[in-house]
Amino acid sequence: MRSILLVLFLICNFSLCAQGIIKGRILNQENREPLPYAHIETSEGTTILTNIDGSFQLPVEKDSVEISISYIGFQSRKTTLYTATIFIEISLKPSMQNLNEVVISAGPNPANTIIQKALDNKNRNDPEKYLENFSYKSYTKFIVDNETGDLNLSADSTSAEIETILNDGRAYLSEKASTHYFEKGKGTIEVVEGVETAGFENPVYEVLALEVNPFSLYKNNYSLFKTEYASPLGREALENYSFKILDTIQGNRPAYMIYFKPKRDRIVAGLEGILYLDTETYAIQKATAQLLGAIKLQVDHSYTYLKEENIWFPSTQETTIRPGKGGKEIAIFGGSISVGAIQQKRGFFQRLLKSPILPNDLYLTVSSKNEEILIPGEPYEKRRIAKIMVNLEATERKPDFWETERLIPFTNRDMAAKAKVDSLIQSGNVKRKLQVKDAISRGYYPIGIVDLDISKIFKTNVYEGLRLGLGLRTNEKLFENFSLEGYTTYGFGDEALKYGAGANFYLNPRTSTTLKFYVSKDIDETGSVKFLKGDNPFSLIEPRSVNADFFYTYQTYWTGIEHQITSNFNGELRLKRDEITQIQDYQYLYNDQLFSDYNLSTAIFSFLWRPFSKYLSTPDRTVMTEKNFPQFTGQIEQSFRNLADGDFTFTRLGVRADHEIKRLDKSRTEFILEGNYVFGDFPLTHAFHSFPNNPNELEIFQRFSVAGRNSFETMYFNEFFSDRQAMFHVRHQLRPFNITEQLKPELVFISRFAIGDFQNPQDHINIEFDTLDKGFSEVGMELNKIFAGFGLSTAYRYGAYHLPTFKENFSFKFTLILEL
């Protein structure tokens, strides 16, 4: 009996919910094309706009309602809608008179004229360009939910089954209260005063860093969930979008209602929507943008008019994503979800929550509201460590704090969801999955209280042959303030055991201040350069090491300290002693004495400077939220003779500059400029080899191997050594070829150049090599991601070091790009 009552209760509730919604679509009568943003007004005064596919959902309180539909260039139409109708299509007839007046005129498109005036007045209307400083408070609510409605569940519900059914599908809920301080020339600092994430003791900081509700629509690129779209008021707005006037809205501040649609959406990612532009200042009063198909995305912006400053300031933003037909990836939780494919396959949410079937009406929404706008603003008096600063007490706020800081209603359903999400997070083992993803991105896999070092499991090179090993590091589950690490590995070719062990003491997690101690015995490649700081991404395969064959053995003892001097400047200082033994028959002539084995006592300072990147500073770490270019890496290494039995005195200097230009059509160009210089009394082990990656074989297919990313593919191993060198790499990737949803190969054109020299090469005995004083040049091409990350690469050597035959100058290899 109870089950029958439950079913009847649900049927009645769902019927009542559906009774007040009329669904339909507005179409062009002649070609049956949808009319985006058509204006619908009921006899009771309710007004709505259709979506970009002409669809609408009209809430009504009676069994029927009279509506009036208008659209520029079409004859208006009145009709009656009935709630008993499941779905209705309404056609509008084009009006040639209106079309001639507004769209097909002999002169320029009037909408383009208005947009051009809006572009001309951008610096006056953009608060970040016009105002010297301002501050404001914001509240943001981030929800993954279903669309069963905002239900008021009573505390004395007699049926747990009903509550479960009505609330199921809710997967994430967080809220944030912040104060923003803007100063021209320094940008905006967001200070997070309070943050709470249901299901987590500490917030998921990666979500805080997502730019889901951009502050300004005036920027050239419009970023949503780490996806870049062309802005309708960007620098190339008239090239990327077509515009049309839909209406002129009357009020205290009249506005032009301008419809925008991408012109080149297969090349440049764009949104479709409407801008409400002030008729006097051409500033944005409000805006709506949508993207339907791959995903259903909608963004709504509202601005408030500040009369004294005569400026429109952002007041509310809401971004909503619903499942679509395709598989568009949206970044969230530090990873990505295939929102549009949720119903077709087990996507990120299913794996995240171990849920076999998710509701068909699942959606993600982020709502923000700004208040307490001060112009001029309150000054930010503390040191600007990062773009986003999370206060120490932000995660420990009491309920009374949220009662005063919530600028958006926190409904009864939201309250019920907080308890529900906690159980979903626990049952789906979400914390574990986030831990695994974070560890793998750094080259580790967490197993209980230790992390497995994946990079130590398998390697291969010419000297060692197959190299197998095991590396472990303790994690925060065992010790929070320090960690122990170690590895051991065995080479089956040289039949030798290698090892390493160390300890890290985390003195200040917020500034990454870490004291390190390490000892190891292993091999290294002669002439190699490794910056302590810089981009050292984890990779399963190191292409160059596979074919490298000139190594030496070292036993090293070192101690160091790392510190985040500023949010974008990280430095590390090391003091170390190396005991080096030659594997091959190499000797260094110094003071009429031949050295094959020697000791080095060295101090190294290395830094990484990312002046344009953005960071999030939390109580326990600093996270880079947006990587921007250029960035710079440098290193100074000084070796001392007679200090701790050091045999030589020399200085090694290195600097590298990386720059990348990304475009909205997903093409990009990368530049790398690197210089290295060593002077003093140095062995060949500490000179430079310029990163060759061509095996020393005669035939092209004998040299078939894995191409490196920034190595010289036609330069043979041990062919060149330098004591001073400069290298320049250029990679230009065309936009991907969208052959199928799974097949999107990328064509890359490459040019590389290196120049160098070597003084006193005669001091290096039993080895012959050339210098780079004439300049080494090669060009190449890659076709990446042909299948499962695999691609093909070719390169050709030309110029001063061109060799006699084609096959000596040509390389043919495969590429492997794995994205974890």
UniProtKB/TrEMBL annotation:
<dbReference type="InterPro" id="IPR043741">
    <property type="entry name" value="DUF5686"/>
</dbReference>
<dbReference type="Pfam" id="PF18939">
    <property type="entry name" value="DUF5686"/>
</dbReference>
<dbReference type="Pfam" id="PF13715">
    <property type="entry name" value="CarbopepD_reg_2"/>
</dbReference>
<protein>
    <submittedName>
        <fullName>DUF5686 family protein</fullName>
    </submittedName>
</protein>
<dbReference type="InterPro" id="IPR008969">
    <property type="entry name" value="CarboxyPept-like_regulatory"/>
</dbReference>
